[in-house]
Design goal:
Blueprint: H1 3-6, E1 15-17, E2 20-22, E3 26-30, H2 35-47, E4 53-57, H3 70-75, E5 78-81, E6 84-87, H4 89-98, H5 103-108, H6 112-136
C-alpha cells in the first residue's frame, strides 16, 4: 500500500496559507450523521476562510476513492495532509494547521508528547461520544 494508492483521495486545489502557495489541501472525512461531528465541521468551515480544507461526509455513500474503510472513517476522525492519512488527534492537528487562527495549536501538536496527550484525550472522548451524541440530537 504505497503512497500512490493514497493519491486517489486528494482533490488538489491551490490555496494560500501565510502567503505560501500549496496545491494539496487538507482533506477531512467526517460522520455527517453525528450531531457533534456536524457542529464541529460547521465551526471549522466558518474558520476555513481560505478554503484550505476539503470536507467529505462519509455517512452516506462514503468516499469510494479513499482507501480507508468506511466503517473506520466513521469510527475515528481521519484527515489527509501532504499525502499522508492520519486519524484521531493527528487528524485534528492536521486540520488545525490548515486554518490560520488554529495553526499555532496544530504546530504545537507536532510535538510527540503533546500529540500523545491529545490522542489520550481523543480516545477518552470516543468512549463517551455515543452518550454525547444523544444529548446533542
Amino acid at each position: 500500500m504505497g503512497p500512490s494508492r493514497w493519491k486517489g483521495c486528494v482533490q488538489a486545489r491551490p490555496f494560500r496559507v501565510f502567503g505560501v502557495m500549496n496545491d494539496k489541501p487538507v482533506k477531512v472525512w467526517f460522520d455527517g450523521d453525528c450531531p457533534l461531528c456536524r457542529r464541529e465541521i460547521a465551526f471549522m468551515r466558518r474558520l476555513d476562510r481560505k478554503d484550505a480544507i476539503h470536507f467529505v461526509d462519509v455517512a452516506g455513500e462514503g468516499d469510494p476513492s479513499c482507501p480507508v474503510d468506511q466503517s473506520e472513517l466513521l469510527a475515528r476522525f481521519h484527515a489527509e495532509e501532504d499525502g499522508a492519512i492520519v486519524s484521531g488527534a493527528a487528524a485534528f492537528a492536521a486540520m488545525w494547521r490548515a486554518i490560520p487562527v488554529l495553526r499555532p495549536l496544530g504546530l504545537v501538536a507536532r510535538n510527540r508528547t503533546v500529540l500523545g496527550m491529545l490522542e489520550r484525550l481523543y480516545k477518552a472522548f470516543l468512549k463517551v461520544r455515543p452518550r454525547l451524541q444523544k444529548l446533542a440530537s
